[in-house]
């Protein structure tokens, strides 16, 4: 064995080929079984796409770098499931381009933050975290409440997501700015189109507490409130393997 090694070591090319052969064993063991199962992504027929307002909120989440402190991925470990809820499924990130799983948790995981708190709590917290969590080290995002949301480019955002596989219809793309307004103005005529296009369960509320004005706060809170709520698939999976 030592002899073989000595010989291999002296020829760079042969040594490289040997490294590739050995290293690929791990890859084969991990990847090959995936070809034998029907699908690596669970089926979730009830899954809906993000509304234009939620897409705008997601863009703000990326712009502000929330992913640098928050993950959106609950691992299948007992402590995570007990703290955050059912572990994340691949299908739940199906329409996330790019995915926002994150790799650091200065703050808690947000994969199932949707509806954990009221809109008013989220608004107060984003405006100044210390108003509701005195010991918080999260930065304040005060400008969200006073910055009007830019909606004229939302149709193009939806169209771009469609090119990478998110099933937005022509009607959704064409009505994106109107739907963004309608989702945060429950008493306006424009609200009806939102539930027609995105389903009855869609939250239609004045997220920032002010239905007359569409702000970046509306968008970000609409997005936070749907996290973990696009499909029920995770709540229906059998998590008994964790000893639940
Ligand atoms: C510097 C790190 C940091 C950044 C950046 C950050 N957060 Fe936080 N976040 C925290 C910490 C720490 C907590 C826990 C204390 C608290 O609740 O304020 C927290 C808590 C939260 C909670 C409550 C979670 C729960 O389960 O109680 C939400 C929601 C949240 N952050 C959203 C956001 C959003 C949205 C952004 C971007 C606009 C953001 N955070 C940016 C650190 C951060």
Automatic annotation (TrEMBL):
Domain of life, per lineage: Bacteria
UniProt keyword terms in alphabetical order: Heme, Iron, Membrane, Metal-binding, Transmembrane, Transmembrane helix
Pfam family, one: FixO
Record-linked PROSITE patterns: CYTC
Membrane spanning residue stretches: 12-35
Annotated NCBIfam families: ccoO, PRK14487.1
UniProt name for this protein: Cytochrome-c oxidase, cbb3-type subunit II
């Amino acid at each position: 064995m030592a002899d073989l090694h000595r010989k291999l070591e002296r020829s760079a090319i042969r040594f490289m080929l040997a490294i590739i052969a050995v290293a690929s064993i791990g890859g084969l063991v991990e990847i090959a079984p995936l070809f034998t199962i029907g699908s690596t992504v669970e089926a979730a027929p009830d899954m809906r796409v993000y509304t234009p307002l939620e897409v705008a909120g997601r863009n703000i989440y990326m712009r502000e770098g929330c992913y640098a402190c928050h993950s959106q991925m609950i691992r299948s470990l007992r402590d995570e499931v007990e703290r955050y809820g059912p572990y994340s499924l691949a299908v739940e990130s199906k329409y996330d381009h790019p995915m926002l799983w994150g790799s650091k948790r200065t703050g808690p995981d947000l994969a199932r933050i949707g509806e954990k708190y009221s809109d008013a709590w989220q608004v107060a917290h984003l405006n100044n975290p210390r108003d509701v969590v005195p010991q918080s080290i999260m930065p304040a995002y005060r400008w969200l409440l006073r910055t009007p949301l830019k909606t004229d480019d939302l149709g193009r955002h939806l169209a771009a997501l469609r090119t990478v596989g998110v099933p937005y219809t022509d009607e959704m793309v064409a009505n994106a700015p109107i739907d963004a307004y309608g989702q945060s103005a429950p008493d306006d005529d424009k609200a009806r189109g939102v539930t027609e296009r995105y389903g009855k369960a869609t939250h239609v509320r004045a997220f920032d507490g002010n239905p007359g004005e569409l702000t970046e706060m509306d968008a970000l809170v609409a997005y936070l409130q749907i996290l973990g709520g696009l499909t029920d698939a995770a709540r229906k999976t059998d998590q008994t393997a964790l000893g639940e």
